[in-house]
Description:
Distance between the termini: 21 Å
Structural class: mainly alpha
Oligomer: single chain
Amino acid sequence: MKKQIFFIASFLGAMSIIFGAFGAHYLEDYLISEGRVNTFETAVKYQFYHVFFLMVLGFGYDIFNKTFIKYACFSVLIGIVLFSGSLYMLCFTNNNLFGLITPFGGVSLVCAWILFFLSVKYASS
């Protein structure tokens, strides 16, 4: 599982850079005209922040409680898809219904941090 966490983190990190560059260079005029620059930037930032969190989960895999680390990883993945993914879709489609999904992603990301806390708390000594 540790290796998969690092694969996922590296893939999502690369995608963050690609999405950020694509937004800045190819979508900038469109995002400005739709008033979605801040939304797009938020999606990229939260995705990228949580790539670093995935790296922490990977590094902590052998140190902390593995079960909680696994659940935290899945929760981060779900959170990124729901949070950043819904914001990307909101930007690309300008359909506000995608904004209704975003809070569920945020809750999933918060749950991931709580699960990480629990993995530290219940680490075998």
